[in-house]
Amino acid sequence: MFSPGKIFLITGANKGIDFEIAKQLATQFKGYHILLGSRDAERGAKAAETLQKAGLSVEALIIDVIDDKSIAAAAETVKSKFGRLDVLINNSGIVTDSLNGDPPTRAQFEAGFAVNVFGAAATTEAFIPLLEKSAAARLVFISSELGSLAWRADPEARFNFVGIPIYRSTKAAMNMFALSYAHQFRAKGWKVNIHNPGWTITDLNNNTATGTVEDAAKGAVRLATLGDDGETATYTEKEGLLPW
């Protein structure tokens, strides 16, 4: 059985912020092995090949967070090949809101929650048995400042524009169940944290943002590699703590 220093799984990692997280982890921490989660086998393989050519210890793992069979198969692959998982970074996410002002539909709500909430929860549950075999399990949930209830209640808060209620709701819901895991595993020493990468140039916003993926990935990398004295149950961005 392959036994490198630590095993990481990042969902939705064939592009964007999580691809950069994988790159920074594998570059900065020699001995770490990064699994690039991707629902598309070809895209995942190409992403892994890009990093492998740079001499980094990564490989692709097929996982579709809205397909329970795919999640179970991914967990079984990790179990048979590595016997454990040390770090899970949940990043798979979509925006299903209409951006032209149309009212949200039931189908849009269901699609958004299926990926951003139910997918992240189902993935976490499937990998808990493998995380329990780690000496220092870490869970990182990639969220958004748009999930802040405190800021949504404040008309003067940043990014408090009218719109995208589905995406905002999914991130607020994800924050809550992430805190539930932090509470559940606190006594075992797990570090479970939520991170906002900021307004970053990705396909999620049609590349209309201003932040770089390099900058956005740094906070998640830090949380994924916390020591025993590191924090848990936090909601952060690069500037510090976010209001719930």
What distinguishing features does this structure have?
single chain, 244 residues, alpha/beta, 8-stranded mixed sheet, 7 helices, 15% strand, oxidoreductase activity, acting on the CH-OH group of donors, NAD or NADP as acceptor, SDR_fam, oxidoreductase
How would you sum up this structure, described in words?
By secondary structure, the protein is an alpha/beta fold. It has seven helices and eight strands, in the order βαβαβαβαβααβαββ. An eight-stranded mixed sheet has the order 3-2-1-4-5-6-7-8, sandwiched between helices. The chain is globular. The mean pLDDT is 92. GO terms for molecular function: oxidoreductase activity, acting on the CH-OH group of donors, NAD or NADP as acceptor. Belongs to the short-chain dehydrogenases/reductases (SDR) family. InterPro entries: CBR1-like (IPR045313), NAD(P)-bd_dom_sf (IPR036291), SDR_fam (IPR002347).
